[in-house]
Amino acid sequence: TEVTEKLEEVVMIWIKQIRQVLVESEQIRREADDVGPSAELEYWKARMSSFNSLLDEIKSSRVRKIISILQAARSKTLKQWKELDGNVTFAANEAKDNVRYLYTLDKFFGPLAEASPITMMEHVPSLMNTVSMIYCISPYYNTSERMTSLLLKITNQMINTCKKYLCEG
Known about the structure:
The protein has one domain (1-168). Helix content is 83%, strand content 0%. The chain has helices spanning 2-26, 38-58, 61-72, 77-103, 106-114, 117-137, 144-168.
């Protein structure tokens, strides 16, 4: 029982740390007003990387051994652990899926940032079709908040490109 108590203390520390990561990941992002759509992809890539690292740690043999010892001891901390494990898995899957869908927009980011307004407009119908596809198909990215944020960033990039064109011309 002394070993079990020590292991439960360790798991409770992990639970506290993982909860902190999850809480921080859900906080509102602070971004510049004129940030473009590539920032959205970079955000989800970073989030995917951090949650995949956390998942790798959770699935490590060291952690699995401790969890199996606590299962054998019928520890009460396992309920919290399983819930957090599920939340981390969900967050990792969400980030991975969002990166996959946002990569379909990546080919438009260059023309949005570098082209003249006339050339940029040639890409808008395809871009909007791709955004529409993401909205219809993605199980995680199809919320009004996420779409609004993405469309705002696309619009910001278009405005920045037009400003640059006007100042250079």
